Amino acid sequence: MSGTRRKARILALQALYELDTVGHAPNEAIERLLEGIAASKEAESFARLLVEGVLGNRERIDETIRRTAPAWPLDQIAAIDRNILRLAIYEVLIDNKVPMRAAINEAVELAKEYGGENSPKFINGVLGSVSLLAAPH
Predict the structure, then answer these.
(1) Considering only 15-19, 42-46, 56-60, 87-91, which range has the smallest mean pLDDT?
(2) Are 68 and 107 in contact (CB under 8 A)?
(3) How far apart are CA 12 and CA 32, in angstroms?
(4) How far apart are the C-alpha atoms of 26 and 52, rounded to whole Å?
(5) How far apart are CA 125 and CA 4, in angstroms?
(6) What is the CA radius of gyration of the chain?
(7) Cα separation, 3 vs 28, whole angstroms
């Protein structure tokens, strides 16, 4: 199942990146991305759920990024990093079906694969701050 979820997160990340940088319609981006790969129905539906969840909660997610990474204006965070953060924050703060540690690990893995040299450390740091917000007080 984790392979399916990882594939879905990669698809969702690619779609979110495209929407953020080029402004294509969500369904068009996902459909086009799915054409090039063999994805299970579970991966496809989870990817769609993630993209819809991030887009539907983007203001709240972006505000969380602003609060937890105040030294980095949102538009100055690399687009790939910004969307990895959006995906992880959606999963842990809003969807709340993935344990915090698992979501952070997944996000750091995505950052290693798709981000820049400093992306994994940056993602880990911001999500560490997010985890403090999510912790029961």
Answers:
(1) 42-46
(2) no
(3) 12
(4) 8
(5) 26
(6) 14
(7) 24
Each residue's pLDDT tens digit, 21-72: 988 787 788 888 878 777 788 888 898 999 999 999 999 999 999 999 999 9
118: number of Cβ within 10 Å: 12
User: Using the 8-state DSSP alphabet, how is residue 134 labeled?
Assistant: H
16 membership: H or E segment, kind and range: helix 2-21
Q: What is the DSSP string of 27-90?
A: HHHHHHHHHTS---HHHHHHHHHHHHHHHHTHHHHHHHHHHH-TTS-GGGS-HHHHHHHHHHHI
pTM of the model: 0.91
Give CA–CA dist 5/1, Å, rounded: 6
Residue 100: both structure tokens together: 């915090």
